[in-house]
Specification:
Number of strands: 11
Radius of gyration: 19 Å
Structural class: mainly beta
Distance between the termini: 41 Å
Shape: globular
Number of domains: 1
CATH superfamily: Lipid/polyisoprenoid-binding, YceI-like
Strand order of the largest sheet: 1-3-4-6-7-8-10-11
CATH architecture: Beta Barrel
Oligomer: single chain
CATH class: Mainly Beta
């Protein structure tokens, strides 16, 4: 009598290293150029299923008030009720719901993105995670880069201004990129 061996997938926990994590965004300004900014306070956890990334899950939390665009007045406006309303909505979050292999070293990670209290399904194109490596302090690290595009109005970010020449001040499409290192728990 033979029994079929079912391979077991072991899951490891990895924490986002806030010192090596950035959430960046870019949006059209005056319909002619991109304005870029970032959030400097990113935390989260990856439950990595070794050998089968489709059984993995990831969550990330971004502190809304950590937004920075290198222009203090613009940053203050982005933190106001016109945009992120950080006093009422102190964080942005993402929680994966489905992961698919998209190619060698590439994943499609679908999940719930919450901005300004509004949750929508989005899909991130992910490069990684990289193979594990040891840092000089004995920690094991992996890294990944994830990108998606959203329409800010879908998340209640509707403020805008008309331009004298026609068009709008702030574009609707926003590209979001996360570059993160994870440390094995």
């Amino acid at each position: 009598m033979s029994t079929l061996a079912i391979p077991q997938t072991s899951t490891t926990t990895w924490n986002i290293d806030p010192a090596h994590a950035t959430a960046e965004f870019k949006v059209k300004h005056m319909m002619i150029a991109n304005v870029k900014g970032h959030f400097s306070k990113v935390t989260g956890v990856l439950h990595h299923a070794e050998g089968d990334p489709t059984k993995s899950s990831v969550e990330a939390l971004i502190e809304a008030s950590s937004i920075e665009t290198r222009e203090p007045q613009r940053d203050a406006h982005l933190k106001s009720a016109d945009f992120l309303h950080v006093e009422k909505f102190p964080s942005l979050s993402f929680k994966s719901t489905d992961i698919k292999v998209a190619g060698d070293g590439e994943l499609k990670v679908q999940g719930d993105l919450t901005i300004r209290g509004v949750t929508r399904k989005v899909t991130f194109a992910v490069e990684g995670p990289t193979p594990p490596t040891k840092d000089p302090w004995g920690n094991t690290r992996i890294a990944a880069s994830a990108t998606t595009k959203i329409y800010r109005k879908d998340f209640g970010l509707t403020w805008n201004a008309a331009l004298e020449t026609g068009g709008i001040l702030v574009g609707d499409e926003v590209t979001i990129t996360l570059d993160v290192e994870f440390v094995k728990a």
